[in-house]
Amino acid sequence: MIEMTSLTKTYGAVRAVDGLTCTIEPGVVTGFLGPNGAGKTTTMRMILGLDRPTSGTATIDGRAYRALPDPLRTVGALLDARQVHPNRSVRSHLRWIAATNRIPARRVDEVLGMVGLTTVAGARAGTLSLGMSQRLGIAGALIGDPPVLLFDEPVNGLDPEGIHWVRTLMRTMAGEGRTVLVSSHLLSEMANTADRLVVIGRGKLIASTTVSEFIARSGGATVRVRSPQLDTLRDVLTGAGLTVHVQPDALTVHDAPTEAVGELAARHSIVLHELRAEQVSLEQAYLSSTDDVTEYRGGRT
To answer: What is the pLDDT of residue 296?
Structure first.
């Protein structure tokens, strides 16, 4: 379990992380989301003792990282897949990690098999593609067989098979009772992988909840309806007290089941060409929740 209490990190006048309090629970995959510059990597670095908090605490199973007797057997992490000596072979890199942490050498071949790098074990790390470097970084995180895992953008550079493999790995690790915290900007993938979410913006906590609850907060299900009598239908629905958003060729009805919309239309002899429920996606919920704290935006074209 990872616990953060009033965790704060300032750089001069900038608060990279601002009073963050939340718990990352074992047995589930927790997605760590936020816009660029939100403070996700800084938070992970403080959990791992790489940055010292300005104030507040981050603990792993009740201890600060620096107080762990065997850190790699407790916490595995991937923050930057390219932080590897380029002239070491894949196997030598992992053997060095194992030897310096009193981990049996046989574990190296085990994790090479787990991440699919057995056939390139003799290749120099500097020659690997980004996707293969990610696999090597994940192998390094797994080598101590730790109960707590942190991954920063682990699917960056992976092909569809690799992304599916990472998703399966995360869910398998969580299913074994481990604590799994993973950040990603691929929200469709987070929707398929994460059970819970921690969302931050400008260093502050926006949400710490389940995926389903986070989506429900942003509107949950809506009803899309098309009709050749769209203006009349809109008047009927708003007259019944429903919230209606007008689109160019349809209406979006909030907080009402399809049955209610269909029955109102039938009662007023309104022809319908389409009537279906739509679920707000994780991406839509995320964009809605972080709109006020997104600092770096592209220009409109």
So the answer is: 59
Q: How far apart are CA 4 and CA 29, in angstroms?
A: 17
Query: Got the DSSP string for 211-259?
Result: HHHHHHHTT-EEEEEE-TTHHHHHHHHHHTT-EEEE-SS-EEEES--HH
Quick: pLDDT tens for 117-170: 999 999 999 999 999 999 999 999 999 999 999 999 999 888 999 999 999 999
pTM over 0.90: no
The 8-class DSSP code of residue 66 comes to: G
Query: In terms of Cα–Cα distance, which of 44, 83, 80, 77 is closest to 156?
Result: 80
The rounded distance, in Å, linking the Cα atoms of 170 and 104 is 24
pLDDT digits (tens, 9 = 90+) for 33-44: 999 889 999 999
Phi, psi (degrees; rounded to nearest 5) at 199: -115, 130
Return the residue matching tokens 């608060």: 15
From residue 7, alpha-carbon distances to 64, 103, 151, 181, 222 in Å are 13, 32, 19, 17, 37
Closest CA to 207 of 217, 219, 222: 217
Residues in the chain: 301
Classify 44 as helix, strand or coil.
Answer: helix
pLDDT at 298: 59
Strand 75-78 with 14-24, pairing: unpaired
